[in-house]
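Ticket #4471: structure export looks truncated?
Reporter: QA, pipeline team
Priority: medium

Steps to reproduce: submit the single chain below to the structure queue and open the exported record.
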Amino acid sequence: MRPRHVAIIMDGNGRWARRRGLPRIEGHREGIKRVNEIIDVAIESGLEAITFYTFSMENWRRPKREVNALMSLLHKYLRSEMQRLIEKDVVFRAIGNIKMLPERIQRLLKKFEEQTRDNTGLKLISALSYGGRDEIVNAIRNIMRNGVGPQDIDERLIEQYLYTAGIPEPDLIIRTSGEMRLSNFLLWQSAYSELYFTETLWPDFGREEFLRAIKDYERRERRFGALPKRA
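Actual output as written to the record:
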């Protein structure tokens, strides 16, 4: 069965650049090209949603110069690609602690969300200033602010307070560059996600490997804790 929702941890931009004797930011620039390519493949493949781990809460710890360069790249991407993606009928959503981002980026994100609200195609989710633990803490705080009693708290309620409310949980999570961990990404939502790890660095991760990951998923049997089906 084809996945409804694929989430991607885009890792390896810095190493890609370093191996070529280039500044780290060049790896990020090349990585943006892969984002566009994978979005197009996701649309062609009929996926319902795709989430990119664009900028984590931990990424704020990077040198200020690199963070500023990443914010500039993000701003430029939103301005240059917004119309193209609108025309592709995507529904855009940014998840994370968005208020930590520069105001000019917050304005663009809000504009992008508003202009795609009535679209019906691929749900394109960008995790920005995002951390899975931070998301869960934020959900609990909002539940408490709303005066919900302990007896009324269950999984369904918590999911309504997550950044991803209304979005199907990821069936498949892909991580590039050889690292084999989630790195604080969609911790609640990934409880039953299938994981796909590849040595390929993100700037080299293209159409063929993305489709290979989907085919690998389709061969797996998802049991969600149940016994396997008898032949």
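Status: closed, not a bug. The export was complete when the record was re-opened. Leaving a note from the reviewer for reference: The two ends are 18 Å apart (CA to CA).
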